[in-house]
């Protein structure tokens, strides 16, 4: 007998095809989808809606993959961090951020990242591999199972990796998260470092998902230095792509701006930033750098952070300060994996 197939590796069409080839009626596919994505089944033998014979028949051909939880850490601010291992023993992180009535899960799209941003620990790893769609969606399923009876309400794709560099798998994962796991597209935000040609594709492949763009600099000179992707797609092209991005009514683009001491936090930077985003329906999230030892970069003082925010707000922009959550548990991008 050949290798067993992973039911989670199938798209909806592939699962229906599998069921048909197995000589089963079509509604069995719907039952499997319900048990896998809504009841978080990881073992065919537990799908009690199916007869014992059917379960053991399916088990001879197929299995349901699962993420293996390696560590679960809770921060004093309520943030929880999950370190998972994949079937090939690579590891990824997901971070759960409770906030009023919302439970937001920050998920990863790649193991490592090829973009090489200087301030980012994931960037230091380089790209190890893309995640498959089921490995991306599985972060939502696994955490939902771990926090029962609660349920994740919002998704941000801001964990490890550059999602637009893995767009096929990311789009399929987002489809499953909305259609099978039932989280509305309006509650999903994808963050990109600015892969300009893929931004238009995203609007086609995952319509109505919110867009966040990691700007992190107000000039090409600084952005070239801290985000190498800028040498391929400089600020003018990036802002142009943002202007073309289709926004639903009352929707805004989020610009993330990591504030790095002495690098991009001057009053001149604030002034240039205001000019850059002029005319765009947007808000700005200022994220004081969460420094890691190798980067040699510093977090600005609180006074500098507040002054930067004030300059933006005084110019009519919406700007929030977003602390990286869970600093005591190394919740920032890539830090838990790095310490494992
Ligand atoms: N690759 C995508 C999404 C993952 S990074 C992107 O770059 O947008 C998610 C966010 O974390 C980005 O806005 C990035 O600028 C920010 N980030 C990375 N390293 C950080 C650090 N050390 N401190 C604070 N924010 C950081
Ligand atoms: Fe990759 Fe985003 Fe980190 Fe840059 S900031 S290296 S794009 S994960």
Structure, explained:
With 340 residues, the protein is an alpha/beta fold. The protein folds into 2 domains: 5-63, DNA polymerase, domain 1 (Orthogonal Bundle), CATH 1.10.150; 68-339, Aldolase class I (TIM Barrel), CATH 3.20.20.70. The chain contains 13 helices and 14 strands. It has helices spanning 12-21, 27-38, 52-61, 121-125, 133-146, 167-179, 196-205, 220-226, 229-232, 235-244, 267-277, 302-314, 335-339; strands at residues 5-6, 62-63, 68-74, 80-85, 91-99, 102-106, 110-112, 127-130, 154-157, 188-192, 210-214, 253-259, 282-288, 319-321. The strands form 3 sheets. It has a 10-stranded mixed sheet, with helices on one face. A two-stranded parallel ribbon has the order 1-2. Strand 3 and strand 4 form a beta hairpin. Iron/sulfur cluster (SF4) binds next to helix 4. Residues 113, 115-117, 120, 122-123, 161-162, 193, 214, 333 line the site of iron/sulfur cluster. The active site is at 93 (proton acceptor), 333 (s-methylcysteine intermediate). It comes from Candidatus Sulfobium mesophilum. [4Fe-4S] cluster binds at residues 113, 117, 120. Pfam families: Radical_SAM, RlmN_N.
Describe what is shown at a glance.
With 340 residues, the chain is α/β, with parallel strands linked by helices.
């Amino acid at each position: 007998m050949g290798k067993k197939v992973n039911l989670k590796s199938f798209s909806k069409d592939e699962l229906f095809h599998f069921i048909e080839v197995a000589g089963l009626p079509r509604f069995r596919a719907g039952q499997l989808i319900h048990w896998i994505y809504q009841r978080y089944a990881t073992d065919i033998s537990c799908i009690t809606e199916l007869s014992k014979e059917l379960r053991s028949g399916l088990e001879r051909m197929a299995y349901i993959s699962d993420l293996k939880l390696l560590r679960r850490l809770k921060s004093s601010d309520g943030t929880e961090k999950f370190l998972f291992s994949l079937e090939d023993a690579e590891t990824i992180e997901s971070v759960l951020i409770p906030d009023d009535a919302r439970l937001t899960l920050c998920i990863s799209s790649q193991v490592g990242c090829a973009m090489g941003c200087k301030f980012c620990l994931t960037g230091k790893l380089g790209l190890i591999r893309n995640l498959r769609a089921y490995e991306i969606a599985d972060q939502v399923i696994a955490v939902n199972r771990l926090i029962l009876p609660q349920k994740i309400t919002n998704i941000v794709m801001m964990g490890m990796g550059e999602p637009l560099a893995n767009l096929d798998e990311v789009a399929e994962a987002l489809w499953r998260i909305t259609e099978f796991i039932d989280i509305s597209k309006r509650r999903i935000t994808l963050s990109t470092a600015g892969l300009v040609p893929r931004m238009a594709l995203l609007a086609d492949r995952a319509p109505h998902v919110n867009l966040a763009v990691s700007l992190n600099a107000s000039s090409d000179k600084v952005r070239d230095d801290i985000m190498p992707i800028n040498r391929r797609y400089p600020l003018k092209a990036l802002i142009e792509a943002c202007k073309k991005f289709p926004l639903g009514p009352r929707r805004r683009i989020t610009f993330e701006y990591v504030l790095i001491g002495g690098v991009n936090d001057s009053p001149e930077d604030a002034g240039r930033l205001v000019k850059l985003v002029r005319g765009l329906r947007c808000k700005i999230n200022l994220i004081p750098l969460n420094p890691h030892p190798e980067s040699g970069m510093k977090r600005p003082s609180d006074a500098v952070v507040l002054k930067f925010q004030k300059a933006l707000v005084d110019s009519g922009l919406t700007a929030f300060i977003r602390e990286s959550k869970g600093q005591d548990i190394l919740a920032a991008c890539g830090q838990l994996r790095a310490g494992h």
